[in-house]
Amino acid sequence: MSRHYFTAEEFAERRARVRRAMAEQGLDWLVLFHPVSIRWLTGSDAKSYQEFQCLLVPAADGPIAMMAREGERAEILDDALVDRLETFGGGENEDPIPRFARIVDELGLLAGRVGVEVPAYYLHPQHYVAIHDLFGSAFVEATSLVHDLSLVKSPAELGYIRRAAAIADETLTVFGAALRAGRNELEIAGEVYGALLARGSGLAASPINLVSGERSCYSHGAPTDRTLRAGDYGSVEYGATFRRYTATLGRQFCLGQPTARMRELHEIARRACDACIAQIRDGAPATAPHEAAKRVIGEAGLEHGRVHTSGYGLAPGFPPSWGEPMHMIGGSRYTLRAGMVVSVEPPVFLHEEGLGARLIDNVLVTRGGCELLSRSSRDLIVV
């Protein structure tokens, strides 16, 4: 049960940090919708994010209220540190906004400035519009307040991430053994999921990426019933989780001897990763590792194949994502700090060639550099 994954003192310290940040921004209340934010402050693992859920946090040291659908009442009461729980719906449909408005009025939120989290997921547009209209001039967008505070991980969190990374490493051996011509991508993905779960991983927030053959130029392709054939080149990426803390791992493979071009793309991706990792340290701007990886890919004449970020922070995952708002990409406002955990994954995907390459590892930012959390070889897997 997630409320027991951390000590009461750790939850209290998190809440105190949030309240200090609220004071700095002149906020009287904070309304949170992202399940990662809610979990960080309460321990809740409930799936009420599928409809409407929120956490109402006062700036003063006082009770914290949560609103969620009735179906999660029992789980939240048993599993989360909340002082007041209000639920809606149940056996019949109910618009949650009138209930939300009554709670807001009862608690006095409209008398002050209210910071509101506006996540990319988890808040329906019609609910956002209604909430914005309800608060009026009191509404202050505060989407990153809690996320930014949770980027640096505690010792307990790092322990869970290390366990997830170990599960990911162990599963790569199973993946390699499952690769052979005549099997389809879905069969192999099933073996990966079976290995993850058997080793104590939960279900990752984002599905496995697994592409082969002509599909190997897809950067986030899901497995299909395509049958692997001799000569196929491809890639896999999956997440292992422990108590929702995620570690990701991505590798390239080939059935039979790879062509010179396949080896070249793999080597470019590897050198881009090395350049990125060399720039990761406490105090470095998040743009620095990105620019280093970008130079390697650009000098190879493949800038057009660099189709996404060079890496990002990893959080406890809720579908559809395990990512944090901190990205290593151009224009990022973030500075890397010791205790952050980030993925490293500069890509090269070339639709015109039907080929791609990406290696994915996670690192812990340290004072003098970073620690590679995965132990798996980054060599091309050749079957």
Structure explained in plain terms:
It is a single chain. With 383 residues, the protein is an alpha/beta fold. The chain is built from ten helices and 17 strands. It has helices at 8-24, 35-42, 73-79, 96-107, 125-135, 145-149, 155-178, 185-198, 260-278, 287-299; strands at 29-32, 54-58, 65-69, 84-88, 114-116, 139-141, 209-212, 233-242, 245-254, 312-318, 321-327, 341-344, 348-350, 355-357, 361-365, 370-372, 381-382. The strands form five sheets. Strands 4-3-2-1-5-6 form a six-stranded mixed β-sheet, with helices on both faces. Strands 7-8-9-17 form a four-stranded mixed β-sheet. A three-stranded antiparallel β-sheet has the order 12-15-16, with helices on one face. Helix 7 runs antiparallel to helix 8 (185-198) and helix 9 (260-278) runs antiparallel to helix 10 (287-299). The longest helix has 24 residues, at 155-178. It is globular. The protein starts with 7 loop residues before the first helix and ends with a strand. The mean pLDDT is 97. Pfam families: Creatinase_N, Peptidase_M24. InterPro entries: Creatin/AminoP/Spt16_N (IPR029149), Creatinase/aminopeptidase-like (IPR036005), Creatinase_N (IPR000587), Pept_M24 (IPR000994), Peptidase_M24B (IPR050659). This is M24 family metallopeptidase. It comes from Bosea vestrisii. Residues 161-366 form the Peptidase M24 domain.
